[in-house]
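FORM 12-B: Structure-to-Sequence Request
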């Protein structure tokens, strides 16, 4: 399974609906400073619900909505919203149809060769709302997280390596570094279960 495309609409510096294609093995995004490269990564973290743990660059969710006056600190009026959709290629069957149906709470999920996870944040005068969709079915964050965990993508995982993470890993003690390798290899989960069992 891999990310096939990210569609940003009114998200951060992407004031127009923009579809960014990704390749199966390796995709490089280049551009001048401030052109929005890191915003694309923020979009992925936002849509997949990984934002809180992996350090999205925004103080509050509503800062993620496109704001033409972003540079001078002014803000536009009226209802505002941002949407990001992450399109996953699941043609290798990483996730089964029943796993997707289960997460969506509906049989009506279309062809699961393609899994589309969409998140929308909407700001009103006195509040804001956040919505998640899985193949156009309305779901909760926990549904998305449980589904992704079945494909090996977790908020604590290392599927996303942020700026500074590499330096941090280099500066770690050998023991902490070992913990990361255990985490990636999927051994850490069993260590935690073993510890729980001993406590009982
Ligand atoms: P660098 O090469 O320096 O890492 P980058 O390509 O990663 O740059 P980003 O950090 O993705 O750039 O984009 C920063 C730009 O996004 C800034 O110009 C900032 O003003 C703009 N920006 C961030 N949030 C918003 C927003 N809510 N509305 C409009 N523009 C925004
Ligand atoms: Mg950047």
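FORM 12-B RESPONSE
SEQUENCE OUT:
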């Amino acid at each position: 399974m891999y990310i096939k495309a990210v569609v940003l609409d009114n998200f951060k510096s992407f004031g127009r609906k923009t579809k960014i294609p990704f390749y199966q093995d390796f995709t490089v995004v280049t551009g001048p400073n401030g052109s929005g490269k890191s915003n694309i990564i923020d979009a992925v973290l936002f849509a997949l619900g990984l934002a809180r743990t992996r350090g999205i660059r925004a103080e509050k969710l509503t800062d993620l909505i496109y704001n033409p006056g972003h540079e001078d600190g002014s803000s536009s009026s009226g209802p505002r919203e941002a949407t990001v959709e992450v399109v996953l290629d699941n043609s290798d069957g990483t996730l089964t149809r029943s796993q997707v149906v289960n997460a969506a709470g509906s049989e009506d999920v279309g062809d699961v060769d393609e899994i589309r996870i969409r998140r929308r944040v909407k700001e009103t005068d006195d509040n804001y709302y956040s919505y998640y969709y899985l193949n156009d079915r309305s779901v909760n964050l926990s549904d998305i997280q449980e589904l992704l965990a079945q494909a090996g993508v977790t908020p604590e995982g290392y599927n996303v390596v942020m700026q500074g993470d590499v330096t941090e890993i280099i500066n770690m003690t050998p023991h902490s570094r070992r913990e990361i390798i255990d985490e990636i290899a999927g051994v850490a989960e069993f260590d935690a279960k073993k510890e729980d069992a001993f406590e009982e």
